[in-house]
Structure formats: C-alpha cells, structure tokens
Amino acid sequence: MKRFLIERNIPGASELTEEQLAAIACTSNAAVDSLGVPYRWVTSYVAGDKIYCLHEADDEETIREHARRGGFPADVVVTVAHEFGPQSADTASTCVAGS
C-alpha cells in the first residue's frame, strides 16, 4: 500500500474537544470498515484550522472515497514519496557535526 498525506480544512479544528475527536475517529473507523479493501489510518494531527492525516491505501481514489463516506473534507491528497527523520543520519556515509 502507498502512504498518503491528507490536508483537511476544518474551521475551528484546534478547538475540537477530545470527545469530538473521538466521535470523528469512530466515523473514520466505520468508513474504513465499509470500504472492503486494504486501508489503514496511521495517525492525524490537528493544527489551527486543519487536520493533517496519514493514511495507507492502494490509490488516491480510495482515500477520497473514505472521505466521502465519512463526510470529511479531503482538500489536498498527496502520495508520500519518502519518509525520514533524525535516525536517517545514521545511514549517511558522511555527516557534518551540527548539521
């Protein structure tokens, strides 16, 4: 499966309560279950008026179908090309201290 980053514009997103976020999670899980195809919701982040989600599916259309079934916006959907972090430096053949 491919990984996709989804940007959802939701005014007031950062003011959603834990209970509201839990309800959104229930709706998302039900939408995933209804798809009948391989799909995995990895995690989501709330920042300002947006929710950023990381999901795994075979294609973008499946991501958008999940959004339709859940009633969520999917304003931007992009395929993740690469993932890296601080641990990535461990595999570098040359690293300059402090870089």
Summarize the structure in words.
- There is one protein chain.
- The protein has about 100 residues and is an alpha+beta fold.
- About 30% of the residues lie in helices and about 30% in strands.
- It is built from two helices and four strands.
- It has helices at about 20-35, 60-70, and strands at about 1-10, 40-45, 50-55, 75-80.
- It has a four-stranded antiparallel beta sheet.
- A hairpin with a 2-residue loop joins strand 2 (about 40-45) and strand 3 (about 50-55).
- Helix 1 (about 20-35) crosses helix 2 (about 60-70).
- The longest helix is centred in the first third of the chain and has 18 residues, at about 20-35.
- The protein is globular and about 45 Å long.
- About 15% of the residues are buried.
- The model has no long low-confidence stretch (mean pLDDT about 95).
* Assembly annotation: single chain
The ordered H/E elements are EHEEHE
Which stretches are low in confidence, meaning pLDDT under 50 for 5 or more residues running?
none
Task: Using the CA coordinates, give the radius of gyration.
Answer: 16 Å
- Can you count the helices? 2
**Proportion of residues in extended strands:** 25-35%
